[in-house]
From TrEMBL:
GO terms for biological process: DNA recombination; double-strand break repair via nonhomologous end joining; response to X-ray. The lineage of its organism: Eukaryota, Metazoa, Ecdysozoa, Arthropoda, Hexapoda. PANTHER family: DNA REPAIR PROTEIN XRCC4. It comes from Drosophila kikkawai. Gene3D superfamilies: 1.20.5.370. This is XRCC4 N-terminal domain-containing protein. GO terms for molecular function: DNA binding.
Length: 236
């Protein structure tokens, strides 16, 4: 079993109105006995994706391309574990169909050949890729006389960039959450103010209604017909 974490350049097709902004794909690959597992983080939508491919599928692809399996396998593995990708290969996260994301790797040597196509699923936690990278780094044996190669420097730089990217994303998420909470509290305060005003209006209407009722009763009392007093004639 061998695990790699690399940074790949996302394949893009620019139109005249688009800026030349290069999106990247952080890729973690775990090469097991019978299959290879992959985790991808796209800087296009800040989402994490996971998928796997059986070696039998690679064997079938090698047969269709009329290549020896061992040669084809090593070529695919090398292209997926090289920092910033291997020359002559293009990498693409196809996200047009949100329900069925796909990762594709093309070999572009005079003509374009599809080498890998991996069905993916969205993973909610983007930190799984980082945890796997840290765990893989801790499991590597420390050589007696450590020699830092260029590829190791590139891998270290890739991991550092990824850690910074995750940190920045988490900070943005926290800032958005704080703004959302402030907005919610403001709305709640406004609702309480409106309820208080409504209660005052109801109280005023109730008081005015009571006053009007008392005035009407007094008017009825004063407006009642006066009864004539009959006084008997003394002479009669």
């Amino acid at each position: 079993m061998s695990t790699f974490v690399v940074k790949l350049l996302q394949r893009t097709q620019l139109s005249h109105s688009q800026l030349d902004v290069k999106p990247f794909i952080y890729a973690r690959s775990n090469w097991l006995d019978n299959e290879a597992e992959f985790d991808f983080l796209s800087t296009v939508d800040n989402r994490n994706y996971r998928g796997s491919i059986k070696y039998e599928e690679l064997r079938t692809a090698a047969t269709e391309l009329e290549q020896p399996f061992e040669t084809f396998f090593e070529e695919c593995k090398g292209a997926m574990t090289t920092h910033m990708g291997q020359q002559g290969f293009d990498y693409e996260l196809c996200l047009d169909n949100a329900e069925e994301p796909v990762f594709k790797m093309y070999k572009c040597m005079g003509y374009e050949t599809l080498y890998l196509e991996i069905a993916l699923r969205t993973v909610s936690n983007c930190y799984q890729l980082l945890d796997a990278a840290i765990e893989a780094g801790q499991q590597r044996p420390t050589p007696a006389a450590p020699v830092v190669t260029e590829s190791q420097n590139q891998e270290t730089a890739s991991l550092a960039e990824y850690e910074q990217y995750v940190k920045d994303s988490k900070q943005k998420e926290e800032e958005l959450l704080k703004k959302f909470l402030l907005l919610i509290n403001s709305k709640k305060a406004h609702i309480r103010d409106l309820e208080s005003q409504l209660e005052e209006e109801r109280s005023k209407k109730s008081s005015n209604s009571h006053k009007i009722s008392s005035d009407e009763e007094e008017d009825e009392a004063y407006g009642a017909a006066t009864q004539a007093m009959n006084v008997g004639d003394e002479d009669s």
